[in-house]
Amino acid sequence: MNSTEPYSNSNAISNDSSRFCPINPQHISISVLICLTFLVGFLLNVFSLWVFTCRTPEWTSNTVLQFHLAVSDVLLCPMGPFMAVYYHTVNWSFGKAFCRLKIALISFHIYTSILFLTLISIHRYVVVVRYNQVSHMNRKDFVQKLCAGVWLFVLIKGTVLAAVLDTSNVDNRTLCLSIHQGQYTDFYFIVNFTILIPGLLLSFLVSAICYTLLVRSMSHLDTSHDSGQAIKSKSCKMVAVCLVIFVVCFTPMNVARSVGLVVKKFLPNECSLLLKVETAYYVSWILAGANCCLDPIIYCFSCQKFTKTLRISLRKIGLRLEMSHGESS
Q: For the whole model, what pTM was predicted?
């Protein structure tokens, strides 16, 4: 009996502290855009997996990295509708087990995406800049071990987060992974500023260095031949897409979450500010979901087989649409 009282009292205190600020549902437009973004991302990445598994008989180390990145995107996309409903109602009605699954999948997706994009950056640098040197990044078996290590790391981290975090009842609402869960404020704060933000900054720094060296190398590339011009064009476009994903998709979500945790911990009575930051965080999930839509563009720039299959599929779709239009006419 005595062993449970401290937890109960701290939980009650946390719930009381969270009542300083009201819990307001978000605008329906945010939920609609989240659903659309994750739906498009799901379709694009299912198509990507089909190309990799059924239309690419010989895999390279680059194909392995892209395949695992597509798997990471597909895992989270089906969670989009549930997240959209929750953000609009601010009431988790899908049970504790599904809440833990949501926490694990979010952790899996975000940080596997960041790590695989970083590995793709390193791989592109090695292939283009150090093409005449022997490197482990050119070996498919080594890259497969790297991917297995990434999945093991995020599996452990996601499992720990899912085991520690749970739903909370606040103001007659059931919350899941919410800033209004007062009993988890300190935990959110520590994990965010000791693991999540440093991990993002380190990955972005490594990618930026690789792409800076890559662009510098491209400036000295002989473009008098068509092959040299094609390599330079595709590499520069790939640089642009990857940097856009880091800056536009991942940075706003991490910034909004960090600011929200600072406000919640040190300025708990600034309700209007907390509401604005909370809304910004939900909007940033639209941008984070756009990552699933932008990743297939990388596959087009780095895999000729992927681009060719995509063009053939689009032609078949266009032909079928023309035939159906002709029959209806």
A: 0.84
